[in-house]
Design goal:
Layout: H1 2-22, H2 28-33, H3 35-49, H4 55-97
Length: about 110
């Protein structure tokens, strides 16, 4: 039961990170900057949650967690790039229409 709970939490963390990025709370660059601390914390979590005292069981838990974490970072970076392009496009459209007077019939 403990191992099942550990795997559930471990595989839910990347989904939460992507959700926080989509909400605009966490940036992809922030996640990239903290990759060393994250690797240490994932290995520490895997060592505590692994059922055996050997290093292989820790590795079997840590490897998928790290793969999913770095995949989530990639998705966050792509989302940040998409958000930047939309902001630039919106600013260009606003700048292009800023000097045009609105007709009285549209008011």
């Amino acid at each position: 039961l403990r191992l099942l709970l550990a795997f559930g939490i471990a595989f839910l963390v990347p989904v939460v990170l992507v959700g926080l990025n989509l909400a605009g709370i966490v940036k992809g660059k922030q996640l990239v900057k903290s990759w060393r601390i994250t690797i240490f914390l994932v290995c520490l979590f895997a060592a505590m949650a692994a059922p055996g005292a050997d290093a292989m069981s820790m590795f079997y838990l840590a490897a998928p967690m790290l793969l999913l974490f770095f995949a989530a970072i990639g998705v966050c970076l792509l989302n940040d790039r998409r958000r930047e392009r939309r902001a630039i496009k919106r600013a260009a459209e606003t700048e292009a229409t800023a000097d045009i007077a609105t007709p009285a019939s549209d008011l």
